[in-house]
Amino acid sequence: MSALVSPRFDLHVHSTASDGLFTPEAVAARAKARGLDGLALTDHDSVAGLAAARRQAAAEDLVFINGVEISVEWQDTPIHIVGLGFDAAHPGLLAGLKTTQDGRLERARRMDAALAAAGIAGTLAGALRHTAHPAQISRAHFARHLVEIGLFADTGKVFEQYLTPGKPGYVPHRWATLAEAVGWIRAAGGVAVVAHPGRYEISSGQMRVFLGEFRDLGGEAIEVSSGSHVPAHMRRFARLARSFGFHASQGSDFHGGAGADLGGFAPLPEDLPPVWRLLNGDVKK
Ligand code: AMP
Ligand code: MN
Ligand code: MN
Ligand code: MN
Fold first, then answer.
1. Where are the domains of the chain?
2. Which residue owns the Cα nearest ligand 1 atom 9?
3. What is the number of the ligand closest to the CA of 252?
4. What b/e sequence results for 62-80 when a residue is b if at least 16 CB atoms lie within 10 Å of its CB, and e otherwise?
């Protein structure tokens, strides 16, 4: 792949191994159809889809990079840390992901009770019908259930009215710490990346504190280009990447429904070092 000056890699992608709608194989096939050169599958707190996605990516002649998106709670704010290019069989990483996953079903039971108290009963049973992996149960599955039964027009409305902090169906949850998430990724030989930084509801002062901590822990990159970023986010996080010395990553955050399609993000600014320079050992077929 050395001939590729600026490869079209989508480095933030979900499958049915977490809350995506496409199987890992279907994601890889669609990446090819969308004209990408390669992808990382980054399911929430799970590496279960990587082997199947990697096989299909090889069949499609695509570069494949191991990925994961770890749920973190930082100063009471949910933050997502993407890991790229790690050893997916590393025992420390697998043990850490297992602890994080173990909390999901327990949180879902509390969400079910909170929604029932707000007048919407039976949501856990409904949400579970939207996933083949109960341990991966997500707010997205609750949202799809509530849309399916006709209570809401789209999942965005469910999140807005019921599933975000302060709303009746939102329950606080202890995810991994930032130190744990970055530590697990690095122990497994991977690169830690801040996912969609434009989405966090923290002040710009807190953002700098957060990025400083992330860098001190060994974090090396941030998503400057994301399917959920508007141009102002791109400019802001390109500036912050330069100021902190981070590499830049890019990814659609494809889930298969509404939201960006595979490859749906703007090109990175040319002066920033792209994250795949840190993945040399892994960026091969
Ligand atoms: P969880 O990991 O269970 O907290 O669920 C978070 C997931 O819900 C994210 O990864 C997105 O897929 C989805 N999500 C979060 N916020 C929204 C929103 N405002 N609209 C639609 N989906 C959302
Ligand atoms: Mn998701
Ligand atoms: Mn995320
Ligand atoms: Mn994501």
1. 9-97+174-278, 103-161
2. 140
3. 4
4. bbbbbbbbbbbbbeeebbb
